[in-house]
Amino acid sequence: LTASIFRPTLLLCWLAAPGPTQPESLFHSRDHSDLEPSPLRQAQPIADLHAAQRFLSRYGWSGAQAAWGPSPEGPPETPKGTSLAQAVRRFQRANALPASGELDAATLAAMNRPRCGVPDTRPPPPAAPRVPPSPLPRVRPRRSPWMLPSLSLSRRGWQPRGFTDGGAAQAFSKRTLSWRLLGEALSSQLSAAEQRRIVALAFRMWSEVTPLDFREDLAAPGAAVDIKLGFGRGRHLGCPRAFDGSGQEFAHAWRLGDIHFDDDEHFTPPTSDMGISLLKVAVHEIGHVLGLPHTYRTGSIMQPNYTPQEPVFELDWADRKAIQKLYGSCEGTFDTAFDWIRKERNQYGEVMVRFSTYFFRNSWYWLYENRNNRTRYGDPIQILVGWHGIPAHSIDAFVHIWTWRRDERYFFKGNQYWRYDSDKDQAFTEDEQGKSYPKLISEGFPGIPSPLDTAFYDRRKKLIYFFKESLVFAFDVNRNRVLDSYPKKMTEVFPAVTPQDHPFRNVDSAYHSYAHNSVFLLKGNAYWKVVNDKDKQKNSWLPTNGLFPKKFISEKWFDVCDVHISTLNM
Ligand SMILES: [Ca+2]
Ligand SMILES: [Ca+2]
Ligand SMILES: [Zn+2]
Ligand SMILES: [Zn+2]
């Protein structure tokens, strides 16, 4: 019923104000240097009872329903008396203030802090006493405020599926979403290119931690674009909710669609330590559009109030898990995965062995931070950018031969291989022995077929295991030849611990992890861990090199997520 009343109202708004709400800007200089920014309008400070009532109502702290009515005509529902004191206490508790219920100076100061326009969510009240369910008539449950994290007025309708107790809900079922920064609603404070770059980066940050992909769409009709963003001042963009001038509300988001920024705010690029970071606000509002409600957890990007810029701004562990609860974690196959070993001297001159974990897919790669259990901030990046002189896409395998005499790293693709110079960070064209690269696999590793599925080096046995379809070739690096009894069936060299639970053929990657002190066979979105010495000490019945049952890669290595190809270079 609510939706059917409001939909025509909004439609009228759009018809009445189809274009920008500001008068036309006229420029005389080509570089716009004659553009005089219009004076900022200040938001009315919240200083009295009436303004505080309006605040509590507008941001969901009072009333039984989502208190702020999106219709611009009606007066807001204002709490009075006991209900006002209750609303104030709730607000105070969430803001870590003494819950006095009084509108004291600290409470008013908290209300005046810059904040997002989306109402806050309240924890659900205790469960009602259980009454026996009556089968008829069916009564639609009233929508309670914690189920309305975003502004409830949506031109594309209400999508109640997938709600969880915390108020989070999956907003989109497709995996690639289009977005557009409205050309008629750009900020007057940053260049158009900078605004687009910042918004693209904000979308990329969500795609780095979810299976979602975001694509800027400048061509499709407006109605076909999933997420539209624009800046406005006061009454803006036909939106039923006016902005309040400089201060307080800096942006708002409509569920399933639009994001508006208050252009009376001082928006700044991520490099600035002044004003309000457009990147941070954009990431927050995109979070709403995707279905996340506010949270008062310190460190979360979904806090309703603006927190000043920190040197590192990233989606933290809990924010990642919250969005992954809605959209799932990232799945996918890898071309190869390996640990890159470096010897470094520490401050006492001792040689330290350090390693970094890399996952390669197509033409990009991720560095994995085992200690933090996530990919490096800002990954993936292009192989072309991070690795010099090796093929730019679809690497088959990587091997690090490491003996007392040798310390050599090789990449394999097709029927060739490349040796990589760790010190110079580029592939050798010619190494210290006068060998030139790339070389044919059949020349450097006699008896080894190509193209390979994968390979790994067993340091103790001084063997490389090369994998091709269902076969394994054990290659002696000292004698430079395949061991006599090889090739063998993969099921023979790496037998299944649980019968039939085995990749059988065509593994993507055999990954020797130093962090886990184990080898993993990766295929598709699954992995099999190879039995190691420690496993055998605990359970002597385990077969040597046995494969533990299959598990999902995404349950062991988190946030290895693709981003849209257009943002790969950001
Ligand atoms: Ca404002
Ligand atoms: Ca491979
Ligand atoms: Zn918000
Ligand atoms: Zn708006």
TrEMBL record:
Q: Which keywords fit this entry according to its UniProt record?
A: Calcium, Disulfide bond, Glycoprotein, Hydrolase, Metal-binding, Metalloprotease, Protease, Repeat, Secreted, Signal, Zinc, Zymogen
Question: In which residues is Ca(2+) 1 bound?
Answer: D263, E265
> What positions does the entry give for Ca(2+) 4 binding?
D396, D508
What top-level branch of life does the organism fall under?
Eukaryota
Where along this sequence does the record place binding of Zn(2+) 2?
H284, H288, H294, M302
Give an example GO molecular function. Answer: zinc ion binding
Q: Which InterPro entries match?
A: Hemopexin-like_dom_sf, Hemopexin-like_repeat, M10A_MMP, MetalloPept_cat_dom_sf, Pept_M10_metallopeptidase, Pept_M10A, Peptidase_Metallo, Peptidoglycan-bd-like
Q: What does this protein do?
A: Plays a specialized role in the generation of left-right asymmetry during embryogenesis. May act as a negative regulator of the NOTCH-signaling pathway. Cleaves alpha-1-antitrypsin.
Q: Which PANTHER family match?
A: MATRIX METALLOPROTEINASE, MATRIX METALLOPROTEINASE-21
> What is the name listed in the Swiss-Prot or TrEMBL entry for this protein?
Matrix metalloproteinase-21
Q: Which organism is it from?
A: Callithrix jacchus
